[in-house]
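Running co-folding for 2-acetamido-2-deoxy-beta-D-glucopyranose.
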Amino acid sequence: MAALVKWSLILISMIIAANGASYDPLKIQQPSISVVTELNGYIGLSSGDNGDVRVDPGVNGSVFLDGEDLLYIIEMIESQPPVWQTDGPVSGQTPYGYLGEFHAGQKLNIGVSAVDPEGTSISYTLVAGDFPPGVKINQATGSVTGIIPDADATYSFTIRATDTHGKFADNVFKMVVRGYDRCSTSNPCQHEGICTDTMESFKCDCIRPYGGTTCNLACGSNPLGIQASLRYVTDAQITGYNTYSSYYATNARLGGSGWRGEDSTSYVQIDFGNLTDIYRVDMSYSASNYYTSYYFMEYSLDGNYFYNYTDFTGNTIRLRGMTSSGVRSHTLPSVLSTRYVRVYPTDWNKSYRPGFALEMYGCYNY
Ligand SMILES: *[C@@H]1O[C@H](CO)[C@@H](O)[C@H](O)[C@H]1NC(C)=O
Ligand SMILES: *[C@@H]1O[C@H](CO)[C@@H](O)[C@H](O)[C@H]1NC(C)=O
Ligand SMILES: *[C@@H]1O[C@H](CO)[C@@H](O)[C@H](O)[C@H]1NC(C)=O
Ligand SMILES: *[C@@H]1O[C@H](CO)[C@@H](O)[C@H](O)[C@H]1NC(C)=O
Ligand SMILES: [Ca+2]
């Protein structure tokens, strides 16, 4: 090996480039010097035995290697990964990454913290697992914020702390989320109703004669809404069989003009949409002479198989209708729990037609 730094090696004569521009291997352009080789050319610095190669940048100057500050590269190689703090902002709560138990609706604001031994700044990212919906981490500060959702679950997630040298340390965190228990603090169910907490709400199991979402309704006097002024029961839910003329079943609403049938096969059917408790039936006539003096009822849960509404001995219950103006009200001897109900007239003035208008009272099962 040559003993001297051979600057002369690269002092090669001009090469003419393809475009005809001159190739200058050594540029001395005050105040800078740059040494350039052509394609596949190399620049070597060799010292003799025991000799050093020195690169001494001036004050505040840097040595760059492939565009990167050599000092930074050395720093990066020597840089230690961040260290997760167990006595950080979450202090005693975070041994082993356990963040604690949180409740639905709670405003979450906790911090996770790692420190870089070299003191560079840390960025925090979620690299595995999931936060509860609506919860997020601030990359720069490690603050975990959001509103705790209404769920019963344990969330496990991995957060990576990365320093500015790209060194990182992962830590697994766990948090327990508890949904609302809407029954625990105050029982929303009135009249001894039994409360059950559900995912987004609560459910009351009411004790008769109460019903409604909070057992607030007295079913015996709560209209199911057939009557013309309420119409909770829509026209599509009221159908007739063997209807007379244009006195359609949709007119069978108390306060309306009434339905009229042809004979004892005629009936009006109401589909309450779901299991419904019927406590009371009110009936008026359709018009003078067009009345029903007695009727009975059939019921069905599926709309296919109908059963007579009977007393507990199995006899079909016949109810008195209304032969004149006014309303005949019957509180049923036993609550009829059904989805479909049919009302059959059995007696009327045979010179005319059977007719009636209805309201029923009870509670929908929500
Ligand atoms: C080196 O940098 C420091 C801080 O920027 C500055 O105060 C100082 O004047 C610089 N020295 C030289 C020789 O430029
Ligand atoms: C009917 O009631 C049952 C039991 O409460 C419920 O699961 C179902 O969703 C209800 N159906 C309708 C159409 O409301
Ligand atoms: C239902 O009641 C009607 C009227 O009382 C009666 O004619 C019919 O036979 C009864 N049906 C059943 C299955 O008991
Ligand atoms: C039925 O109507 C006819 C004709 O209007 C009347 O003569 C008769 O008295 C009525 N019958 C009853 C039971 O009201
Ligand atoms: Ca570091």
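Result summary
DSSP finds one helix and 27 strands in the chain.
The chain has four domains: 7-78, 83-178, 187-215, 220-364.
Job closed.
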